[in-house]
Amino acid sequence: MKKTVLVNISYYVEIDDSENELSQKIQRKLCENRTLESDDGNVFLKWNQSSFKVLNPQIMNCGRCSNCGCWTTDMEKHNAIFGLDKGAVHNNILLCDECLPPDHRWAF
Prior knowledge:
This protein is mainly beta. The chain is 8% helix and 24% strand. The strands form two sheets. The chain has a four-stranded mixed sheet with strand order 3-4-5-6, with no helix packed on it. A two-stranded antiparallel ribbon has the order 1-2. β5 and β6 (93-96) form a beta hairpin.
């Protein structure tokens, strides 16, 4: 019996302000259906949806981890951003789940 699995993948793309058309080009390319080879034969990936979001820490619940620099969202605040690494503020600094202390509830 076959079942359907929803796969979500996030990419970070650094663009200059002058490159406002790049996201449309990337979106067109990412929206193509794909066939992947696996040990069990070919797997068909059918595109379903995509979204683009310009990350702005001034107005959004996001920022760079103070330790490693990856993009993260504070899971202890409202409006956490799906697709970013989970994180939290610890000792007044934003840390991702991999940089939080091991005993922190959001640590990986």
